[in-house]
Write a structure and sequence with these properties.
Layout: H1 12-17, H2 22-35, E1 46-47, E2 50-51, H3 69-72, H4 79-88, H5 115-125, H6 134-157
């Protein structure tokens, strides 16, 4: 009886420990880099034990919280869509104990995130919730448009400022 040896090549540590599609893993990594880098999220928030949490809630597990914020807020929305809504329209839902009007819209200057970057942050921050797949990413992209449309409708319906 002959034994056959089959070489196995693993690309990166993620390939060895996750069944997540490579595109999702890449988005999650990009979101992590944005959160702790250019987007500046870590100046106000923590994710678990990472970050400072000066004025915003912990967005992961930690500080006495046993589920990521995306999984425990706005339960009628999938976590990834809740995160998108929170980035595009921060005051759509404000975590109890925190003030409205504090978090800037990350799609506007000085940060000016692109839609792809917003999705990457949402993928990163929705970890610990339901699996993220291509359908969830497509829904997140659609949510960006829906939130912007709702914001525009509210703005045009508001009485003019004097």
């Amino acid at each position: 009886m002959k034994a056959w040896l089959v070489p196995v090549v693993l690309v990166g540590a993620a390939a060895a420990c996750t069944s997540e599609p490579r595109a999702v893993t890449d988005l999650r990594a990009a979101g992590h880099d944005l959160f702790f880098g250019r987007a500046g999220c870590a100046a106000c928030h923590r994710v678990g034990d990472e970050g400072t949490r000066i004025v915003g809630p912990n967005l992961g597990r930690g500080d006495g919280i046993d589920a990521p914020v995306a999984a425990r807020r706005r339960t009628h929305l999938p976590p990834i869509e809740y995160v998108v809504e929170s980035i595009v329209e921060p005051d759509a839902f404000v975590v109890p104990g925190y003030a409205r009007g504090v978090m800037p819209r990350q799609e506007e200057p000085p940060v000016a995130l692109t839609d792809d970057e917003i999705v990457a942050l949402a993928v990163f921050l929705s970890r610990g919730g339901p699996a993220v797949d291509e359908a969830a990413i497509a829904a997140a992209r659609a949510r960006i448009a829906a939130v912007r449309t709702a914001r525009s409708a509210r703005a045009s319906a508001a009485p003019p400022r004097s």
